[in-house]
Amino acid sequence: MNQKGVLTTWNDAKGFGFITPEGGGERVFAHIRSFAGRGRPVSNRKVVYRVVRDDQGRPRAGGFQYAGAARIGANVAPGVWVAGTFVLGFFAILAGLLYLHYLPVSILAAYGVVSLLLFVMYWIDKRAAQRGAQRTAEKTLHIFELCCGWPGALLAQQIFRHKTRKGSYQFVFWLAVLANLGALGWLLVAPGAISWRQQLGFDLSTLIQPLIW
């Protein structure tokens, strides 16, 4: 059963501290591995936790996290807002081009559908990582990112805190984003892509060609 208390002390360098129960009593040991919130714990914050026992039978906090308004603020990391703003801005640009008839609905739909699919794939992979189950291959995720799914991947990474700390993965991810945006830009304005644009029934290059050529 969850209990309430205050994280009265916290040694961030060592990754542990102690929780004082709300109703008083003996302090409970808390380790960073048991922290269920985002970021790092901070002392003198109200928390909810459950009491578990270690191998020697000593009480310790299991799955502790901030309580009340502090929990809401801590669970929405700054990266979520940045990713959300970036993705929203990107789709707003696509929607504007669609409204002006400079973009076919199929491209906007491709980004929306594949992003949603990849968002779900990230969630499934995160759950698998937590359970120690079979994971989704990274190259599979990268292929979907390259094929218009990177907006969903960017949001999923921040919301699920998944794949954000692996430098090699992030490097390939952003390469996929740049490659996808480069391909989109080529399709929209490059002279060599005019036959593709004609088949899809749009041609943004007629609007901006005088500005760049």
UniProtKB/TrEMBL annotation:
<feature type="domain" description="CSD">
    <location>
        <begin position="2"/>
        <end position="78"/>
    </location>
</feature>
<keyword id="KW-0472">Membrane</keyword>
<dbReference type="GO" id="GO:0043488">
    <property type="term" value="P:regulation of mRNA stability"/>
</dbReference>
<keyword id="KW-1133">Transmembrane helix</keyword>
<dbReference type="InterPro" id="IPR052069">
    <property type="entry name" value="Ca-reg_mRNA-binding_domain"/>
</dbReference>
<dbReference type="Pfam" id="PF06961">
    <property type="entry name" value="DUF1294"/>
</dbReference>
<dbReference type="InterPro" id="IPR002059">
    <property type="entry name" value="CSP_DNA-bd"/>
</dbReference>
<feature type="transmembrane region" description="Helical">
    <location>
        <begin position="171"/>
        <end position="194"/>
    </location>
</feature>
<dbReference type="InterPro" id="IPR012340">
    <property type="entry name" value="NA-bd_OB-fold"/>
</dbReference>
<dbReference type="InterPro" id="IPR011129">
    <property type="entry name" value="CSD"/>
</dbReference>
<feature type="transmembrane region" description="Helical">
    <location>
        <begin position="80"/>
        <end position="99"/>
    </location>
</feature>
<dbReference type="GO" id="GO:0003730">
    <property type="term" value="F:mRNA 3'-UTR binding"/>
</dbReference>
<keyword id="KW-0597">Phosphoprotein</keyword>
<dbReference type="GO" id="GO:0005829">
    <property type="term" value="C:cytosol"/>
</dbReference>
<dbReference type="InterPro" id="IPR019844">
    <property type="entry name" value="CSD_CS"/>
</dbReference>
<dbReference type="InterPro" id="IPR010718">
    <property type="entry name" value="DUF1294"/>
</dbReference>
<dbReference type="Pfam" id="PF00313">
    <property type="entry name" value="CSD"/>
</dbReference>
<protein>
    <recommendedName>
        <fullName>CSD domain-containing protein</fullName>
    </recommendedName>
</protein>
<feature type="transmembrane region" description="Helical">
    <location>
        <begin position="105"/>
        <end position="124"/>
    </location>
</feature>
<keyword id="KW-0812">Transmembrane</keyword>
